[in-house]
Design a protein that fits this description.
Number of strands of chain B: 11
Radius of gyration of chain A: 13 Å
Shape of chain B: globular
Number of helices of chain A: 0
Radius of gyration of chain B: 13 Å
Strand content of chain B: over 45%
Structural class of chain A: mainly beta
Helix content of chain B: under 10%
Helix content of chain A: under 10%
Order of helices and strands of chain A: EEEEEEEEEEE
Largest sheet of chain B: 7 strands, mixed
Number of helices of chain B: 0
Shape of chain A: globular
Oligomer: heterodimer
């Protein structure tokens, strides 16, 4: 039972353009959502989070949007840079404890 | 402030041996979480501990796996009588409280021959 889904295994974007990564969830009890970035042979690095009481959170080049009625969230990166190439994981929690992760999306930024 | 530390980074075991994975949380963090990542998959929650207490072990396999977070020292994830299916990357995360972001260590890559 995959409660958090990232349906795009990979995404390729040109440097300087916007990258949009998507995530869908099924559990209506989730109240906190996070995005992590992961390089090979390293642990996930926290990027940005959003509480279910908000619909948008912005931090520099990163913005997360939450659509609770659609059970959908997205991460926007603009402008995209070569160093953004990594695997991005969306995660959710109910009660801010254990995280449920999506399968990840491999983002490649092309020069 | 050092991040979450895990050791060893790589561990090779033969079937039937024991694997011990260690995690030192960030300074000031008393909440520790263990996750497992199989190849080409996302991370799966295993167990959540606070000092000397297991809070949630709903993701732990029923047999051979155990975890502890003693009053002194690192958190330990122990896998007894390893099998090839235990081969995975095991990540530890820590947080200062239950409602904070979790910060991850670099992981231990376990290979069972």
């Amino acid at each position: 039972d995959q409660q958090v889904k990232q349906n795009s295994p990979s995404l390729s974007v040109q440097e300087g353009r916007i990258s949009i990564l998507n995530c869908d969830y099924t559990n209506s009890m989730f109240d906190y959502f996070l995005w992590y970035k992961k390089y090979p042979a390293e642990g996930p690095t926290f990027l940005i989070s959003i509480s279910s009481i908000k619909d948008k959170n912005e931090d520099g080049r990163f913005t997360v949007f939450l659509n609770k009625s659609a059970k959908h969230l997205s991460l926007h990166i603009v402008p995209s840079q070569p160093g953004d190439s990594a695997v991005y994981f969306c995660a959710a929690s109910a009660g801010a404890q254990k995280l449920v992760f999506g399968q990840g999306t491999r983002l490649t930024i092309n020069p | 402030n050092a991040g979450v530390m895990q050791n060893p980074r790589h561990l090779v075991r033969r079937r039937g041996q024991e694997a011990r994975l260690r995690c030192s949380p960030m300074k000031g963090h008393s909440h520790v979480y263990w996750y497992r990542q199989l190849p080409e998959e996302g991370l799966k929650f295993m167990v959540y501990l606070q000092k000397e207490n297991i809070i949630d072990e709903s993701g732990m396999p029923k047999e051979r796996f155990s975890a502890e977070f003693p009053k002194e020292g690192p958190s330990i994830l122990r896998i007894q009588q390893v099998v090839r299916g235990d081969s995975a990357a095991y990540f530890c995360a820590s947080s200062p409280g239950a409602d904070n972001e979790q910060f991850f260590g670099p992981g231990t890559r376990l290979t069972v021959l």
